[in-house]
Every structure is written in structure tokens, then in C-alpha cells.
Amino acid sequence: MIGKIKKKLLEPKSFAFQTESLICPICDRFIPVSQKDAHHLVPRSKGGRSTEFLHKICHKQIHALFSENELAKTFNTAESLKSDPDMQIFIHWVKNNFFWFIAFQCFEYIFWLVILYSLLNLGPYF
Fold first, then answer.
1. How far lies 74's CA from each of 28, 81, 111, in Å?
2. In the chain, pLDDT over 70 holds for what percent of residues?
3. Residue-level pLDDT at 117
4. Which 8-state DSSP code applies to residue 95?
């Protein structure tokens, strides 16, 4: 008898999930693979099982604003999350600034890469 996890690992991989475009149900924008995060609509500690893919930043904002009890009782759908006034402010901000947020993350990564190369004296940066 094979356990659930091992069985899932042994199943042949289907690449259909990689080519389909994922849209964040919170901000209605495309989710890059590097920014994809699974959110339990009802927290697992409260018996939730179903998940939706969100941007990491949207997922972090949800857990910053709401407790697990609030998520389980009131905010257990994307529509209810989007209707909250604090989330509406965040959604407006992220729709206007998401490109700059990603660009800053890339810049920060390159900055620390250059610092690491210079500290280790590994030669030219690029």
C-alpha cells in the first residue's frame, strides 16, 4: 500500500497546469510562477480543505488583516475578501503599483548578488 504523498509523487506529471494562466481572484491580475501561493479559503485549523492560488503579496495581506476565526466565519470566499474596505484599499494600491513592487524585488536581488560577488572577489559581475 502506497501513501497519498508517495502516490502523488509517482503519478506521471501533466504539464497542462504550467501552461494555463492563473489569475489572482483578489486583484484580478496574472500570477507569475514565482509569485504563486496557495490560500486555504477556510484555514486548515478550522477544517478547511479547498485552496485558491493568489499572489504572495495578496496572501500576506489577507493574513495581516484577518484572524483565522474571521477567515473561517466571514471571509471564506474571494468576493467577501474583496468587499472589505481595508482590502479594497490594498487592491487599489496593488493594481497601480504591482509592476514597481516586482521591479524592486528584482533590483534588490541583483544588488545583493553584486555585493556578494565583490565580497568574495569572484571577478566580474556579469
1. 21, 9, 42
2. 68
3. 72
4. H
Cα dihedral 18, 21, 22, 27, rounded to 10, equals: 150
88 alpha-carbon distance from chain centroid? 18
State which H helix or E strand residue 98 sits in.
Answer: helix 85-120
Please state whether the predicted TM-score (pTM) of the whole model is above 0.90. no
The pLDDT of residue 105 is 63
Which residue numbers in the chain have pLDDT < 50?
Answer: 15-19
Return all residues near 36 (Cβ < 8 A) that are at least 6 apart: 22, 53, 54, 55, 56
CB 51 within 8 A of CB 37: no
Domain chopping of the chain, boundaries: 20-120
User: 20-120 adopts what CATH topology?
Assistant: DNA Binding (I), subunit A (1.10.30)
**All three cell numbers of 64:** 495581516
> Strands 36-40 and 51-55, how do they pair?
antiparallel
- What three-state secondary structure class fits 109? helix
Per-residue confidence (pLDDT) for residue 2, from 0 to 100: 66
